[in-house]
Design brief:
With 748 residues, this protein is an alpha+beta fold. It is built from 22 helices and six strands.
């Protein structure tokens, strides 16, 4: 055991203990460095192979700035393998290879994903294309026409003015409606009051006539007189009968009498007959007296009946008139509330406006409180007069003489109150009716002017032929099953509403829709800058890759040659209407072009209306209708807008604002504005994809843009492969070679 303690060879052992770990460390370090370099080279090779595969893009789509992978999977895989192996191979004749990389054929794959039919992928490529070909400064210059000139704020104020005018007009019409209903109630009230006046005037006259004939007689006193008269008549009739019997007897006695006796009998008969005649005359007088008493009794009965009738009717008549007065008062109150709402709205607008605006809103007529209070008071006086007449009537016991005169004064006062109420209210209603009629007539005239121009706009249908129909049947709408547009719209996952904008394809049908369409544009213009970037690029793409109505005319007049655009828009089968189809998505050339014409006209109409509103028509202001002033401004601007529209359709530029004639716009400029205003990118994207497929006959769903590639390379380990096998993952070291697998994603 002594040899253990010997020191012979200790230096060698020490050196070995130092050198061997150092050697092992360097061996591992060298292989690790080689592995890291090989890892990077493999990554580069996979990436290069992927790019090489993507270089086989479809040349038909390239003019549209679109890149999609053409060819089948086998060709893609073959090209990938070739490039990958080439990238890993050592240069020819290089001798010693530090890495000795080798492609492993069994661990390769590449998968193409995400076609150009995907709206997100398509939109991204459109934006990339237009970043270089359509700087935002151009779109901003168009928007600058509105923003920098201050017209954006003025147009927005014009839209707000229309909404305020419409609101005030609605309140004014509500007030007129309430006043109409109040007047109807007032006429019914006056008719009832007048009928009561006529009734009680007639009753009073009849009672007075009867009272004058009756005097102070009563039915009992008259009956008593008639009984006495009947007794007198009977006595007198008995006396006459007795005397007549005496005459007959004397006539009988004359046959046996001598001459002297006959003469005496004759004188006696004459005397008795004279007495009979006098008695009969008295009887006639008594009968006449009896007849007059019977008439008097009839008059008394009629008098009593009339008094009873009047007494029975007074309570219900007064109640009916009071109820009618209450209904009228309620209608007056409703009208007053409508008037106060109008006053409050007018005052609010006056406070928010400058002096000119305040004068404009001040022209809207409102009634003062005196109008409604006097309306109620005058109506109430009529009911109060009837109540007073009732009280006096019931206090009157004899309808003749002084009581009658006093009651007649009360009846006449009641009648005068009705007449005064009618006269006052009819005068007010006449003035209001005249103003309303003038407003209606003026509105009709202005609407007629506007509609005459709109009819001219509707006649412009563009240069469309029957040859476009098959193309539209192929393109279709985004909701038309089997169409190209529907195919691409169906690839969206957000279920966004993608139909065309809501513009009447035949232009506004009447003045009302025309004005509202112009106002909708006024409201949208101040928001032009919101979300500008992507929408501006999309608009520029549509206007540079596709044709539109005036493109050929503009080129002939010295504009930018559209034929030199890579996509050659003037050679497309759907001539002079592609951009309009992209924007509006209608199913015919006529529908798309007239949609564009109608909306362009509405834009000019909106601008001209606002310009005219800066100096509103004084006659319209005097009539006090805010909407009439707006309609007048629109009617005046309609002809100017039509002139601008015809200039655009001729391929020329025209002034957007009359006060800034140096700032002009063209037909495509307005299409840009409309695409920025309300073009729905989802629908526009689907229709652009459909047009590209129609023009190139290349389904975008077959052109892929995303490549996921996986490949494996290996490097021979120089030192200690077993150690690396323990340190690496299972299967990473095989047959002394370190295997490196890389996955790379490459896209256009």
């Amino acid at each position: 055991m002594k040899w253990i303690w010997k020191r012979d060879g200790s230096v060698s052992v020490t050196i070995l203990l130092l050198v061997v770990p150092l050697f092992l460390f360097h061996a591992v370090l060298i292989d690790y460095a080689r592995i890291r370099i090989a890892d990077r080279e493999t990554e580069y090779a996979v990436r290069a192979a992927g790019r090489s595969v993507l270089s086989s893009y479809d040349r038909k789509l390239q003019p549209y700035g679109l890149f999609g992978l053409a060819g089948d999977e086998a060709l893609r895989k073959e090209r990938f393998n070739e490039v990958f192996a080439y990238q890993l191979a050592s240069p020819a004749g290089s001798g010693f290879s530090y890495l000795d990389l080798r492609a492993e054929p069994d661990d390769r794959s590449n998968q193409a994903l995400y076609s150009l039919g995907n709206p997100i992928v398509f939109q991204r490529q459109v934006l990339e294309e237009m970043k270089y070909r359509a700087p935002l400064s151009y779109a901003e210059s168009i928007i600058g026409l509105f923003q920098k000139t201050g017209m954006s704020e003025e147009l927005g104020a014009g839209a707000a003015h229309f909404e305020n005018a419409e609101r005030l007009e609605a309140l004014l019409e509500k007030l007129d409606k309430e006043l109409d209903e109040t007047w109807d109630e007032a006429m019914a009230y006056m008719e009832l009051a007048s009928s009561l006046h006529a009734r009680y005037s007639s009753l009073l006259s009849e009672l007075n006539s009867l009272s004058e004939r009756i005097g102070f007689h009563t039915a009992d006193s008259v009956r008593k007189l008639m009984e006495e008269l009947d007794r007198a008549i009977r006595l007198l009739q008995d006396n006459v009968a007795s005397q007549q019997e005496s005459v007959r007897n004397m006539h009988n006695s004359m046959n046996n009498a001598d001459e002297e006796q006959q003469e005496s009998l004759t004188q006696a008969i004459e005397s008795v007959e004279q007495s009979i005649a006098e008695a009969e005359a008295s009887l006639n007088e008594l009968f006449e007296r009896k007849q007059s008493l019977e008439q008097l009794l009839t008059d008394i009965a009629a008098y009593v009946a009339l008094v009873t009738q009047a007494s029975a009717g007074w309570a219900s008549d007064v109640h009916s008139l009071q109820q009618a007065n209450s209904r009228l008062a309620e209608r007056i109150e409703q009208a007053r509330l409508a008037n106060e709402r109008l006053r409050a709205a007018r005052q609010e607008l006056m406070e928010q406006s400058n002096q000119a605006g305040a004068d404009y809103w001040k022209s809207v007529p409102v009634y003062d409180m005196e109008f409604f209070s006097s309306y109620k008071t005058d109506a109430g006086k009529v009911a109060a007069m009837l109540q007073a007449m009732k009280d006096r009537w019931e206090a009157t016991s004899r309808f003749s003489g002084e009581p009658y005169e006093e009651l007649m004064v009360s009846v006449q006062t009641y009648g005068r109150q009705i007449a005064e109420f009618r006269q006052t209210r009819e005068s007010e209603e006449h003035q209001r009716g005249e103003r309303t009629q003038k407003v209606r007539q003026a509105k009709s005239e202005q609407k007629a002017k506007l509609e005459r121009i709109l009819s001219e706009v509707r006649k412009v249908t563009g240069e469309c032929g029957e040859g476009d129909r098959p193309f539209y049947e192929t393109l279709g709408t985004t909701r038309q099953k089997g169409s190209l547009a529907a195919k691409y719209a169906g690839l969206r996952t957000d279920q966004e509403a993608i139909e065309g904008v809501d513009v009447d394809p035949l232009a506004p049908k009447d003045a009302e829709t025309g004005v509202k369409g112009a106002v909708s544009i006024l409201k949208a213009i101040p928001g032009l800058l919101l979300g500008l970037r992507d929408k501006a690029y999309t608009a520029e793409y549509a206007l540079t890759k596709f044709n539109y109505r005036t493109m050929r005319v503009e080129e002939e007049k010295g504009g930018k040659p559209a034929a030199r655009t890579l996509s050659a828009p003037l050679t497309h089968p759907l001539a002079g209407q592609e951009a309009e189809y992209v924007l509006y998505g209608q199913t015919s050339c006529t529908a798309n072009l007239t949609s564009a014409y109608g909306e362009m006209y509405l834009l000019f109409l909106a601008v001209r209306t606002v310009e005219n509103m800066m100096e509103p028509d004084k006659q319209a202001l005097r009539l006090g209708s805010p909407m009439l002033a707006f309609l007048t401004a629109a009617a005046e601007g309609a002809l100017e807008a039509w002139t601008n529209m015809k200039t655009l359709l001729d391929g020329d530029r025209t002034a957007l604002f009359l006060r800034l004639p140096q700032l002009t716009v063209s037909y495509p400029d307005l299409l840009r504005i409309f695409m920025l205003l309300h073009g729905r990118e989802a629908g526009m994207t689907a229709r652009m994809q459909a047009l590209i497929e129609l023009n190139t006959e290349v389904p975008l769903t077959d052109r892929l843009t995303y490549l996921q590639s996986t490949a494996t390379a290996s490097i021979r380990l120089w030192f200690l492969p077993g150690l690396f096998r323990l340190a690496g993952e299972e299967g990473q070291v095989r047959q002394g070679r370190w295997h490196i697998t890389k996955t790379e994603v490459t896209s256009y």
